[in-house]
Amino acid sequence: MSVTIGVGVGDAADTARAVQAAVEQARAQLGGAAPQAAYITTTVDHDAARVHAAFRQVLAGVPLHGVTTSLGVLTPAGVRNEGHGAVAVMLVGGAPGTAFVASSLEADGRRAGEAAARELVHKASGKQPRMILFNASPGVEEEMLRGIASVCPDVPCQGGSAADHAIAGQWSVFTHEGPVSAGVSLLGIFGEVRVGTSLSTPYIPSGVHARATGARGRTLLTLDGQPAAQVLGRWLEGAIDDQVRSGGNILAQTALRPVAVRRDVGGRDHYVTVHPAQVHADTGAVDIFARIEPDDEVCLMNGTAEGLVAEVSHLIDAALAQGGLTTRDVKGAALIFCAGCAGALGPRIDEGLRTFSRLLPGVPLLGLCTFGEQGYIPGLGNVHQDLSLSLTLFA
Amino acid sequence: MANQISRITSFVEKRRLGFGVARLIMMSGVNVRGFGPNDPDPPEALRRLEQVLPQILTPQEQQELTHLLSEAAT
């Protein structure tokens, strides 16, 4: 027996009714298969604890995993968020042992990744997962992925980081036990399941670059020895002058002109895109949503809304090719779409999402908007980056 | 003029649904859902909303909103 996937979305204002509706839609697509795990999400318009409790009640005994999504829930017909927020669920059906969930609340990222991965493997009686759906709070995803790799080497991790609307820390990670503001949750897929994965960004290097001469965690201090905000301000030709002077959020201004770190992958370039988030006027430092290490070469990237829309078909093609799948094989899809990209696109995101209806008609899709994306790059392993699209196809 | 944030939110929700309001919150950094119709408008929050409205509404919709806000003020 192979995997079956069902997806449902609920947008009633009442949380319990929204969850009930989402589960009913998802169950109806399982063809009678028993759900082995549920990938759940909600916008922060709903209270996370009530969402979790409602799923737990309706899906009694089914392991839960997920994160909150920014902006809305992504479907093949477009974004769902009519006004009261939205909740959604992907049910993974199949024989017992098809899916397990695990989580960790350890503050140390590497230890958290290791602990969650060990729990996952233990639940599967020592078997390695075919792939892992990874969801975590923003902050230390790189270390979490390293921790997972130490337990599950070469297992692809695809996912996204918890998000809210205001970038105000109102996000949650859904572990089976409940929602948490900080932690990691994994949903491992095991057994007779074929998967295709891809992680992509629709940006090209501008040719403008500088050396990171000062960086600490997710704060970029200096580029070529000068305050990072000043360098970025020059690169963006006035677009963030107010913020360089007075400080502030630059997510919108940098969504189509982010920075990236070039990595060599067997003679090819992979650009790890990084979203500059906040300028500190007093120090000239810039908060970012992924790590840049001292000595990294930081490049300015260029993108367009058209490129973002078109990227969806590339993403699907790449995932099909990676998994050796045809469109007829695909039984379900999990899409992670950077919230910054989705915010920059606005209603045009629906054009990109409708690509799923065109290329994968009738395939259940669960899509989230996140504050950081994770995916597997052959030759590089699992990476965390920003302003990216991450796709998993199940067959 | 009071209650502008609440009126702006209602207008965006009617024209752009919850997704539009969520974009407004993300791009401005102002949690507009926290403002009721009788709450005062913090000037800095209002300024940030005004800065991002052109990215969310069409020029015609912005004119309609301006008209609505000035009518409410009189």
Give an overview of the whole structure.
The complex is a heterodimer of chains A (395) and B (74). Chain A has 395 residues and is α+β, with helices and mostly antiparallel strands. Chain A is built from 10 helices and 27 strands. Chain A has helices at 15-28, 48-58, 109-123, 141-151, 228-235, 241-246, 251-254, 305-323, 339-345, 349-359, and strands spanning 4-10, 35-42, 64-67, 73-75, 78-80, 87-93, 99-104, 131-136, 157-161, 173-174, 179-180, 184-189, 195-200, 204-216, 219-223, 226-227, 248-249, 259-265, 268-274, 276-280, 285-288, 297-302, 332-338, 365-370, 373-377, 381-385, 389-394. In chain A, strands 14, 15, 16, 17, 18, 19, 20, 21 and 22 form a 9-stranded antiparallel beta sheet that branches. A 6-stranded mixed beta sheet of chain A has the order 1-6-2-3-10-11. In chain A, helix 1 packs across helix 2 and helix 3 (109-123) runs parallel beside helix 4. Chain A starts with a strand and ends with a strand. Chain B is mostly helical and 74 residues long. Chain B contains 3 helices and no strands. In chain B, helix 1 (4-28) packs across helix 2. The relative contact order of chain B is 0.22. Classes of the chains: A alpha+beta (395), B mainly alpha (74). The A-B interface holds A 43, 45, 70-72, 79, 81-86, 165-168, 249, 251-252, 339, 343, 346-347 and B 13, 16-19, 21-23, 25-27, 29-31, 33, 52, 55-56.
Tell me the quaternary state.
heterodimer
Question: What number of structural domains do the residues of chain B give?
Answer: 1
- How many separate helices of chain B? 3
Strand content bin of chain B: under 5%
Overall mean pLDDT score of chain A? 96
Please give the alpha-carbon distance between the first and last residues of chain B: 9 Å
Report the count of strand segments of chain A. Answer: 27
Which whole number gives the mean pLDDT of chain B?
A: 92
Low-confidence stretches of chain B: none
Distance between the termini of chain A: 12 Å
Principal-axes shape call of chain B = globular
- Coarse morphology of chain A: globular
Query: How many domains comprise the coordinates of chain A?
Result: 2
Q: Using only CA atoms, what is the Rg of chain B?
A: 11 Å
The computed structural class of chain B is: mainly alpha
Can you count the beta strands of chain B? 0
Main beta sheet of chain A, described?
A: 9 strands, antiparallel
Q: What's the number of helices of chain A?
A: 10
State which percent range the strand residues of chain A make up.
35-45%
Name the helix and strand elements of chain B from N-terminus to C-terminus, one letter apiece.
HHH
Residue ranges of chain A: pLDDT <50 for 5 or more in a row?
none
